Amino acid sequence: MTTVHERVDTFHDNDQKPVGYGRMLRKEDPRFVRGRGRFVDDVRLPGMLHLAILRSPVAHARILSIDTSAAEASPGVKAVVTGAMLAEQGLAWMPTLSNDVQAVLATDKVRFQGQEVAFVVAEDGYAARDALELIDVEYDVLDPVVDARRALEPDAPVIRDDLEGKTDNHCFDWETGDEAATAAVFARADVVVSQDLVYPRVHPAPMETCGAVADFDAVEGKLRLWSTTQAPHAHRTLYALVAGIPEHKIQVISPDIGGGFGNKVPIYPGYVCAIVASIVTGKPVKWMEDRFENLISTGFARDYIMRGEIAATRDGQILAIRTNVLADHGAFNGTAAPVKYPAGFFGVFTGSYDIEAAYCKMTAVFTNKAPGGVAYACSFRITEAVYLVERIVDCLADELGMDPAELRLKNFIRPEQFPYTTKTGWVYDSGDYEPTMRLAMEMAGYADLRREQQEKRARGELMGIGIAFFTEAVGAGPRKDMDILGLGMADGCELRVHPTGKAVVRLSVQSQGQGHETTFAQIIAEEIGIPPDDIDVLHGDTDNTPFGLGTYGSRSTPVSGAAAALVARKVRDKARIIASGMLEVSVADLEWDKGSFRVKGDPGKSVTIQDIAMRAHGAGDLPEGIEGGLEAQICYNPSNLTYPHGAYICVVDIDPGTAQVKVRRFIAVDDCGTRINPMIIEGQVHGGLADGVGMALMEMIAFDEDGNCLGASLMDYLLPTALEVPDWETGFTVTPSPHHPIGAKGVGESATVGSPPAIVNAIVDALEPFGVRHADMPLTPSRVWDAMRGNARPP
Ligand code: MCN
Ligand code: CUM
C-alpha cells in the first residue's frame, strides 16, 4: 500500500486526550529546554577524582621510556598510570567490537596521533591536565602510513607488529556477489562506465563528547559506570569479559546523551581507564574528553576509496554493478558491525535497481590513523554503498545522455517483485519506488527546474539538479546471522501497568536525541489505549532494563519498536481475560475498542484498560489460572531487516566567480513504513539532511604526510550551520514492512545516507558545461574551482 496522506490515527480516551501515533511534542523536551537534562558530565559523586589522558603527539613511534615522577609529585595528583603498569594486570589491551584488539594505553608503540599513552588521576580536572605536561615520554619516531594505498606497498612500515606473525598492513579481504557472472554481463554490455570515488574520512562530532564516571565499591564488589554509550548492555557484557568483574556486579548507566551518531557505540580506552582508576584509588573517577580529543581519537566514519563500474544497454537498462573498495580502518579494527559483516551492510550497493549481476571486492587496511569506520548515521556503511550506486548511475545517465530521473525510473525494482532478493543476497522486504520518486519530482517541479536550468545555462549561470534514490537495510538483525562479538542482535522490552492504569515501559535501546521517551510511549499507547503521557519510558540502565543490543543502525524502531508493540499485545491479551471476568462474558464475546473491551452487540457494557489494571491488582477474584498484576516481558528477534527507501532532489547554484555552492532547495521524500510520530521523523530527516550538506560541502578529517590530524577542532572540521542549509521540503509515502508487527521501518539514518549523493549529483550536474563527470567530496570552493578547470583532485 502506498499513500501520500498522513495517517492521523489519533483516537481519544475518556478525557479526549489523543493517544497513539501522530504528531506529539516530545515528552523529554520540558526537561531539556529547562536545562534539567542529566548528562554524564553532570554526575558528581562525593570524593570524585578526575582523569586526564596523555595522548601521542606523533602518528607512529616506538616508546622508549616514560618518566612519570614529576607528574606524580604535582599538586593534587593521586595516580599516574602507564601502559606498562596496565600490562602487569593484563589490562593494556582490550578486544574491539570487530574481533581485533586495541591498546588501552600504548605499551610498545603509538600507532596514531592522539593515541592514549598514560593517564593521570587528580583531585580536579585542572590538576590532572596540568600534570599531563610533566610526563616525559621518549619516542623513536617511525615512518607513518597515512594513505590506504601506501599501506599495501611491500616496503610500507608494518603498523600492527603487535599481532603475531603480522608482516603487512592488511586488515581483511571481503567479497560479495558473483564475480564470474558479473564479468560475463560486463563483457556483453553495450555501455560500461567506471568512476573512481572517494568517500572521505568524516567524524560524527556529537555535541556531547565521550566520557564516563566509574565508581567501584570494593565492599559490595560492584562497579557502577555512567558512560556515554549507545549500547549499555553490550558494553556491560564486554566489561565483564575484559575486567573479570562478574556481570551482575556491573551496572552501566547511560543517562541523557547529547548526540551519539555512532560515535558512542565502541568502547573507548578512556572508559576502561576510568574503571581501572576507580578500582586503584577506591574513589569515583570521571573522564570527560574535550572536543580536540573527540575529533582526533574517537570513531571516525567512512574513509572508503571506491571504484564503481556499471554496465548497461544503450537504451538504459542497467545490467550489472561492480565495485572495488579500499577501506581504511585506521590503526585498530574498531568498527562495530555484525561479526559476519566486516564491511557492514555495504553489500546493498546494488541500490534500488533490478539488475542481473553484481560483485564487490574489498580490501581493508591498517593505517596510522584513529580507529573507527562505522559511525555518523551510516546504517552500517550503507552511506558508502548508496553514494557509490547513486553516483555511478548518474555517470551512466551522463554517458547515455539520458535524464537521471528517467534512468532510475526505468530500472527500479517493481512492487510485484517484493520480497526481492538482490544479487548480493539481501532480501528487501517491501518497497514501492516509483510513487516515491514521482512525488519528489512533483514536489520539486522537476520539469520546470530543468527548463530553468536550460535558460540559466544559456546565460552562463551554473545551476544543478541532483537526484538520489536509496534503499536502506536497517534493524539488525535476525540473530541467526547477526551478532556483535557473539551477542545475538535481539532486544527485550518489559511493560508494567500500575493499578491506576499508568504504565512504565523498559527498553534495551537507548536514545541519544531520537525521542524514544515519546515514540515508545506512543507505540504502547496505540496498542493498549493508555495515553502516552501516562506511560514512562525507561532506558539506559542495565540494572533496570531488559537485555538487548542497543541503538545504532536505526534498529530501535525495527527491533525494539516491534518488541514494544508485542509486549503491549501480550498485556492486552491478559487484560482481555480479566475483562471477560469483570463483564461475565466469554473472551470471544469481547471486542477491543482502543482503550477498552466491550461486549459485542452491547456497547454499553465495557471496561477500560484502567478499570482492568485496577482489577488486576485489586481485591476480588480473577478468572481461573490468571495471576495478579498486569505486566509482561518479551525478547524480540527480528525475522529480517526492514528496508526503508527515499527519493531526494537537490537544487544548487554555483557562483562561477568564486565556485561557492549554494544549496537552494532540497526535497526529501522518505518512506519508513508506518509512521509513529511524523514530527520526530521530520526532525530526524532535517538533521540527516544537514549532515549531508556538511559531508558534501565541507567536512573532512584530513591528515598531513606525517600523520598529523588537520581536522582536530571545529575551526578546521567544519560543520554546517543554519546559514548553509535551505528550508527542507519533506514528503512521504507509506509502504509498511510486512514482517514488522506495526509495519514500521527505521528512519534515523536515512537522510544522512541519501543526501550526500543528491548534493554531489547536483553539483556535478551544474558543472556539466565544463565537462565534469565527477568531483570528490567535500566540494569546497577550491575543489569546485579545480573541477571547473579540469583538474578535479582526489582528497
Ligand atoms: N520513528 C517513527 N516512525 C518510524 C520510524 C522511526 O516515529 N517509522 C521515530 C522512532 O520512534 C525514533 C526516531 O524516529 O524516535 C528514530 O528511530 P529509528 O529510525 O528506529 O532510529 P533509532 O532510534 O535506532 O536511532 C538511531 C539512529 C542512528 S543509528 C544514528 S547514527 C542517529 C540517528 O538515529 N543518531 C542520532 N538520529 C539521531 N538523532 C539525534 N537527535 N541524535 C543522534 O545521536
Ligand atoms: Cu552507523 S552510526 Mo548509527 O548506526 O549509531
TrEMBL record:
Main enzyme class: oxidoreductase
Domain (Aldehyde oxidase/xanthine dehydrogenase a/b hammerhead) ranges: 34-143
Alphabetic keyword roster: Molybdenum, Oxidoreductase
EC number(s) on file: 1.2.7.4
Recorded GO MF terms: anaerobic carbon-monoxide dehydrogenase activity
One Pfam family of this chain: Ald_Xan_dh_C
NCBIfam families, per the entry: CO_dehy_Mo_lg
Protein name, as recorded: Carbon-monoxide dehydrogenase large subunit
The species this protein was found in: Micromonospora echinospora (Micromonospora purpurea)
